[in-house]
Amino acid sequence: MTNPSRRHRPVQTMDAHHPRALFPALAAPDSRPTIGILALQGDVREHSLALEAAGARPVVVRSAADLGDAPGDRLDGLVIPGGESTTMSTLLVAFDMLAPLRELIGAGLPAYGSCAGMIMLADRVEGAQEGQAFLGGIDMTVRRNAFGRQVDSYEEDLIAPALGAERERPLRAVFIRAPWVEEVGPGVEILATTRAGRAAGVGGADGGRIVAVRQGALLATSFHPEVGSDHRVHDVFVSMVTRRA
Ligand code: GLN
């Protein structure tokens, strides 16, 4: 029989000098908020790394069971990543997750949607596929593929103090077949608008389009802050979660 103390000797030898090694039960519990990432489709890994960097404990959500009602499994927040909102809708319905998610969001679960995730959190969607189901929650109208179908990808340095992006250190925003927000209800905070919209041929009369919003515990961005190593949007979401947890 293998002697476990022999097998683990190198670790024990190193840890023996550390007082906690003698009292493993006293090791600090994980105090990070648990944030689920809806992983039916879309860029899950990037959000996981960004959430970790922002001080959260990311977990993957693939089924209604992963939404966690058991103590210890409870989610403190949820990220709905980018991808394709029509596919996401179909899968949410197929996996019986639409109703439980709507219920959790309605009950105040903090959620952050980027790109397709923003579309999922909108109360009204222009350019939706017939019969497409949404989670809703934010009193806004979102237009799918608003930057133009031919514009696959568009980037801009955003100045958005509410997201920690001041003039000296703007936020590089990457839009991929992205939606924008056409209009918001009175309870919705506008966190970022495009500046160079007109130059890119996508602007309205004022040149700016709404691309980041917050209503209560819900946050949404048209762009993908999980690409790259700038985690300011995830920092904002993690602090929204921490305040409520
Ligand atoms: N165009 C996609 C949709 O409508 C969103 C694109 C994205 O999430 N990058 O769902």
Short description:
With 245 residues, the chain is an alpha/beta fold. Helices cover 25% and strands 25% of the residues.
Give a description of the structure.
Pathway: Cofactor biosynthesis; pyridoxal 5'-phosphate biosynthesis. By secondary structure, the chain is of the alpha/beta class. 25% of the residues lie in helices and 25% in strands. It has eight helices and twelve strands. The protein has helices spanning 4-7, 9-15, 19-22, 44-53, 85-94, 98-106, 116-120, 232-244, and strands at residues 34-38, 57-61, 77-80, 111-114, 122-126, 138-143, 153-158, 171-176, 180-184, 189-193, 210-215, 218-221. The strands form three sheets. Strands 2-1-3-4-12-11-10 form a seven-stranded mixed β-sheet. Strand 1, helix 4 and strand 2 form a beta-alpha-beta unit. Residues 1-16 have low confidence and may be disordered.
User: Beta-strand level of the residues, as a percent range?
Assistant: 15-25%
Largest sheet: 7 strands, mixed
**What is the straight-line distance between the termini?**
46 Å
Dominant shape: globular
Approximately how much helix is present in the residues?
25-40%
Enumerate the strands of the largest sheet in spatial order, edge to edge or round the barrel. 2-1-3-4-12-11-10
Gyration radius (Cα, Å) is 21 Å
Q: Compute the average pLDDT.
A: 85
Class derived from helix and strand content: alpha/beta
- Unreliable spans are 1-16
Spell out the helices and strands N to C. HHHEHEEHHEHEEEEEEEEH
* Extended strand count: 12
Task: Count up the helices.
Answer: 8
Bound molecules: glutamine
